[in-house]
Amino acid sequence: MIISTNSKDFKFISDDTNELTKNSAFLLHNINKKYLHIAKQKTNFILQVDDLKKYLKTNIKIIGITGTNGKTTVGSLLAFTLFKLNKKVAFQGTRGFFIKDKEIKGKSLTTPMPLDIYSNINKACENECEFFIMEVSSHSISQNRIEGLEFYLKIHTNITRDHIDYHKSVENYINVKNSFFNDETMKVINIDDEAVKFNPKNLITYAIKNKADIQAQNININENIKADICTNQESEPLNSKLYGEFNLYNILAVISATRYLVNSPLLYIIKAINDFLGVDGRMQVVSLKPLVIIDFAHTPDGMKKVFQSFKNKNISVVFGAGGDRDKDKRALMGKMADKYAKTIYITNDNPRSEKQENISQDILKGIEKKAILILDRKKAIEQSIIDFKDD
Questions:
Q1: ∠391-284-121 over CA atoms, to 5°?
Q2: Res. 389: pLDDT tops 90
């Protein structure tokens, strides 16, 4: 990654020693510090992350979103809502980097490396954006990729099991996620989540089950989402095109954040949210007859939340598990499919260095009913639709 500068001492900044020249500066951060000795051989200019503010524009309100599930939907919906309310917004996450409604960079890490983040912030400032929304992964918190960032608002979605291959235990993973909320930054918290811990100073809460600043009542999620959104001062009806209780939580997070970020009546916020059609791969409706949904759920809890959105329907599910990742969750994912789905198809899902057959066997350990094994993903999807039509 290279960023050009107007410095009299060097022409560009890089955090990759392979890109360094005498006319460059090396950005030192937690990920690349082991290469410092190489950098010193190539340049006399070593920068800390905080030094970037001398060379790049960073005057923007940064909103960070973390949680096991929902980061992309909450970020996308928040960006959409603020844009509909005539605010200039940038959004960085799993889907890429966007300014207003235009894609600037394609898919990348959920939370990029520090120089990439500051480059995107600089670009957002150059485009006169008021808000910079970003997804914050557990890896980025643990590796301190968010070093030096001054968050204006932090948003919590939920915390369940994920990335145990990296964090080594569920407890470690939960502690890393919760560490994001230890400071006194203004924060939006889902207080229905029993795993979340946070500094109670500067707090906005949302919930369905518990009393909170923003609550949903008179909920109907049999098809799309209908509910009354209530605060201490007002109540407005929600009629969203999204599916599922977990998306109602995502909506509550966005309403809570938007009310803090902009001075807009609840009615206008909900009106904007009602126009949101969803995110590709996140409860994405690709057919109505039969109803076909694509969702990137990759944890047992994520699958459970998707299945519970269609309690009264016969469910056929096509899924797999990624290789070189938490092996213990595979049987748990199989167990969720076994509990909620009538028909189960096990298929390929990025095996990496593992054999797909071994991954499938791990999944099958959690399934008691008969499951159909079709490793060709396209054929598995086609067969599931054919079988469903014949049902």
A1: 165
A2: no
pLDDT digits (tens, 9 = 90+) for 142-168: 999 999 999 999 999 999 857 777 777
The DSSP line for 298-322 is -SHHHHHHHHHTTTTS--EEEE---
β-bridge mates for residue 204, sequence order: 188
Structure letter (DSSP) for residue 110: S
Helix axes 328-340, 356-364, angle to 10 degrees: 60
347 pLDDT more than 90? yes
Q: What is the rounded distance in angstroms from the CA atom of residue 266 to the CA atom of residue 255? A: 8
* C-beta of residue 54 within 8 angstroms of C-beta of residue 143: no
Rounded Cα distance between 314 and 117, Å, is: 44
Q: Which residues contact 46 (CB under 8 A, 6 or more apart)?
A: 25, 26, 28, 36, 39, 40
For residue 290, the 8-state DSSP code is T
Token code pair at residue 218: 């008179």
CA atoms within 13 A on the CB side of 339: 16
Closest CA to 287 of 390, 391, 380, 382: 382
Report pLDDT digits (tens) over 27-61. 999 999 999 999 999 999 999 999 999 999 999 99
How far is Cα 347 from Cα 357, in angstroms, rounded to an integer? 9
Number of Cβ atoms within 10 Å of the Cβ of 239: 13
* Whether 14 contacts 20, CB under 8 Å: yes
Name the pLDDT band for 391 (thresholds 50, 70, 90).
Answer: very low
- Predicted pLDDT at 281: 84
Q: Match 């960006």 to its residue by tokens.
A: 79
Which amino acid does the sequence have at 186? M
Helical residues (DSSP H) of 341-376, grouped into ranges: 356-364
Q: Chain-wide mean pLDDT for the chain?
A: 94
Task: Give, for 64, the enclosing helix (H) or strand (E).
Answer: strand 61-66
Q: What is the pLDDT, as a whole number, of residue 309?
A: 85
In the chain, % of residues over pLDDT 70 = 99
Torsion, CA 365, CA 371, CA 374, CA 378, rounded to 10: -110
Q: Are 104 and 70 in contact (CB under 8 A)?
A: no
Residues 322 and 351: their CA atoms lie apart, in Å, by 5
Tokens of 213: 């600043």
